[in-house]
Amino acid sequence: MPPNQSKAQLFAAIRRDSRAGMSGRELQAKYNIGYRTVNAALTSAFPERRKEYPARASKLDPFKPFIDEMLP
């Protein structure tokens, strides 16, 4: 995928080239992507949203009181 190309633009290009007659393997080679991405692009016009993960606690949290005591 070119650096300035969004995933939606990539999906549109894949669908356009597929309609022009390019095979799945040709699309994989041209865009340097896997078969799952090609199948996703041919199935849906828009990529799925990325899964959002819950925020993690900092590893420093147990030590913050000690650090605060050391600082004036």
Structure description:
It is a single chain. With about 70 residues, this protein is mainly alpha-helical. It has helices at about 5-20, 25-30, 35-45, 65-70. Helix 1 crosses helix 3. The relative contact order is 0.14. The model has no long low-confidence stretch (mean pLDDT about 90).
Distance between the termini: 51 Å
Sketch the major β-sheet: none
Structural class by sheet pairing and helices: mainly alpha
In terms of DSSP E residues, the strand content is under 5%
Unreliable stretches (pLDDT < 50, length at least 5) are none
Compute the CA-based radius of gyration.
22 Å
Gross morphology is rod-shaped
Compile the SSE list and pairings.
Layout: H1 7-19, H2 24-31, H3 35-43, H4 64-70
Helix pairs in contact: 1-3
